[in-house]
Design goal:
With 154 residues, the chain is α/β, with parallel strands linked by helices. Strand 4, helix 4 and strand 5 form a beta-alpha-beta unit.
């Protein structure tokens, strides 16, 4: 993947107001964020399937509402973790109302982090600026030399 300085984010939420908050936050506070939104669990799984068939680039991070109608966020997360094209994508799960059990179940299903659902543009801007930086910024990872197998630092 070529580093363009852009961050592709997929938001999975059925609430129109939440999607608009996220779009406004991306445009105003985080212009490096390319935001796509999908409304619901079934729709996002169809989106991933179509993207895989067409060899489209997957998002770099997914923001997933836990409380989706029909196919809830936990079911979507479990399915995403079982698909090769989405198994390694960082997932931030959020919900406006949640229990400690739901948080734990989210982590067991493969969430990378769980946050309270933002209620406004500023809340999404904070997620984009703080959470995305953690999951998207290039990390200093050791590379392995082909000659001796020893780790080298970049």
């Amino acid at each position: 993947m070529v580093d363009t300085g852009r961050c592709s984010v997929l938001l999975v939420d059925v609430e129109v107001a939440q999607i608009e908050f996220a779009r406004l936050a991306a445009a105003a506070a985080c212009p490096e964020v390319d935001l796509a939104a999908v409304d619901g669990g079934d729709a996002v799984l169809d989106w991933f399937e179509a993207g895989a068939k067409n060899q489209q680039q997957m998002p770099q991070i997914i923001l997933l509402d836990l409380k989706l109608p029909k196919l809830d966020g936990l079911a979507v997360l479990r399915k995403m973790r079982s698909l090769a094209v989405t198994s390694e994508i960082p997932v931030v799960v959020f919900s406006a109302e949640y229990s400690q059990d739901e948080v734990l179940m989210s982590y067991k299903a493969g969430a990378n982090t769980f946050v309270a659902k933002p209620g406004d543009v500023a809340g999404y801007a904070e997620i984009f600026q703080q959470r995305l930086t953690h999951w998207i910024q290039p990390q200093h990872k050791p590379t392995f030399s082909s000659t001796d197998g020893a780790a080298e630092q970049d």
